[in-house]
Amino acid sequence: MNTLKEVIYLFVTFIMAAGITYFSVPTLIKVARMKHLYDEPNHRSAATDVVPTLGGVAIYVGFIISMIIGSDGFMFSEIKYIIAALTIMLFIGLKDDIVDMAPKKKLLGQILASLIVIILGNIRFTSLHGFMGIYEIPFLVSVPLTLFVMIVLINALNLIDGIDGLASGITILTSATFGGWFFITGHYAYAITAFALSGSLTSFFCFNVFGKENKIFMGDTGSLILGMIMSVLVIQFNEFNIGLFGINAFKGAPAISIGIMIIPLIDTLRVFVIRILRGTSPFTADRNHIHHKLLDLGLSHLQATLTILTVNLGFIVLSISLQNVPVGKAFMIIAPLAVLMSSVPSYLLRRKKIRKTALHTYPD
Question: In terms of pTM, does the model score above 0.90?
Answer without folding.
Answer: yes
